[in-house]
Amino acid sequence: MTYTVDQLYSNCDELTNAKDKISEHPDKFQIIIDAAKNGQDPSVKKLASQLIGRFFKHFPSLHFQAFEAVFDLCEDDDVNIRKQSIRDLPNLCKDNKENTLRIADILAQLLQSDDPQEQNITANSLIAVITSDAPSAIKGIFQQMEIGDELVKERCFKFLSTKFKILGKEIITKEAEDVIIEYCKKFLESATGEEFKIIMQLLNNTHLPKTLMGQREIVKLIQKHADLDQPFDLHESNNYSLHMITLAVNAALPYLSSSVDSNAFMRYMCEQVLPHLEEMESLENGESVQVAILRQLAELATYTTNYEKVDESIESLFKKLLIYMPAPPTNGDLDTFPKQEFSFVECLLYAFHKLARFSPQFLTNDEERLKDFKLRLQYFARGLQGCIKKLNEKLSSDESLKKEKQPNELLQMTSNINTLIKDIFRSPPIYKANITLSWKDADATSNKTVVKTAPETNGTSVNRQKRHTPITFDSDSSPNKISRGNGKPTSSEQQKIYTPPSGKYSTKVSGYDGNRRPGRGSRPNVRGGKPSYRGSSRNWRF
Question: Distance (Å, rounded) from C-alpha 290 to C-alpha 275?
């Protein structure tokens, strides 16, 4: 039988004019379905697709055949027919919510098309389906991600990370958010680096982080993903362990507070990561990696409470401090200083200061240790005073420098160290000073991405222009060398802070290849052949 556009329009007019008695004319709707399946003219197929969507709700007995017909058109060789059928798919669940899940599932599969315009049309249809019934649609997308191939999963994650930004709370309701939370928890178990970031972004946009209990749950999920029970291996393939822990800590930090502690991360960083700090110099951008790790360590320390074996963490911090706070020279030359890594010392001393309050006897129980440490503090403070003096002189002589971030950050860094040293230099040492870490200005400290419940404060910022009185000095001589010997900040202060790669670190995840890019033709094949949208099982059929 030959199907024409005029014939379809005639059937359309008859069905429209039937009004309340439209369901009495299934034969007319059957002809439209048959035209979609067997029509030869592209215009006939496109029109049939539109009419199926228009009259679909009136003929429940023909739903299965109508679905089959539209799905066939989604695989048509003619790209224009495919695009039209994709546009019409949301109409099949507009008044039949029970179909939403399967339509969203099929549209999720269609995202793997290589045609950018076809991808965009598919995304718009998915948004229409989500707008109609968000919980079912989101469930359909995630279910397809569970069984689909890597390309489908990748495209769905991309869709979720970009398109959800334009949907408001009137569409993404609490019920829909619960579906997102449920599936995000599942996917976190095997997420790659990029997927992990998207999952955290999705979770952050739900109601979960709005409560204290939810914040704790998110942190626990991140800890589980980071696999903190496994030993740290700096030289693992693609630096997997390093990238995993840095990405996980970055994700957890916004959720930490005085009520959501960082103990698990802090213990892992001190006992597993910190001992390898010097080895990181051999990595690409090694020094920026070290600074990133130490800054994370310091920020974690802000939210640490007393925990089991905290003395082991303190010991690890103390050993590193001894490396970067050298003992005074035995030749009596106290005016020449070795390289001073102020950024390293600020982080380590801050973390030590935070943890040592839980075990104040760490220093006082060993007189030789305390005596040696005080000598180091005094010697380091001497060089610190010279640096503060020179920085203040430069800022006073050049007004333009006051507007630049680097000299002011370095001045606050040295002031922070000086404040912490004063606390520890007391007899006995005390751990009461509150400072703002040099890289975290007041706005950044208060502008967390998550609303906290009784957040812990970092205290007030140290006055950047204040001249500090030395702890103990015989003379007011300036050091001959500051930082690297030229009165300039070390490269640690100058370098851009290291950020971990998004995906390559997850090569250990089963089935994931950091360089994966499955080959695809110009369009996918829903029904059979390879690749099919639902694999060989073809369980998209109902």
Answer: 12
Alpha carbon 25 to its chain's center:
55
Residue type, 145: M
Residue ranges per domain, the chain?
265-502
What is the spatial distance between Cα 390 and Cα 383, in angstroms, rounded to a whole number? 11
Tokens of 215: 């914040």
Q: Which residues contact 276 (CB under 8 A, 6 or more apart)?
A: 232, 234
Among 124-133, 167-176, 297-306, name the one with the lowest average pLDDT.
Answer: 167-176
Residue (of 144, 145, 74, 148) closest to 115 by Cα position: 74
Give the contacts of 231 (CB within 8 A, at least 6 positions apart): 272
User: Tens digits of per-residue pLDDT, 360-394?
Assistant: 999 999 999 999 999 999 989 988 888 888 888 88
Residue 401 reports pLDDT greater than 90: no
In Å, how far from its chain's centre is CA 176?
21
For the record, the structure tokens of 309 come out as 């074996």
pTM: 0.78
- Residue-wise pLDDT tens digits, 105-159: 999 999 999 999 999 999 999 999 999 999 999 999 999 999 988 999 999 999 9
What string of DSSP letters covers 382-435? HHHHHHHHHHHHHHHH-GGGGG-HHHHHHHHHHHHHHHHHHHHHSSS-------
Asked if 109 and 102 count as a contact pair (C-beta separation under 8 A), the reply is: no
| 3-state class (DSSP) for residue 205 | coil
**pLDDT higher than 50, residue 70:** yes
Please list the residues that pair with 257 across neighbouring strands. Answer: 260
Using the Cα atoms of residue 178, residue 179, residue 184 and residue 190 in order, give the sign of their dihedral. positive
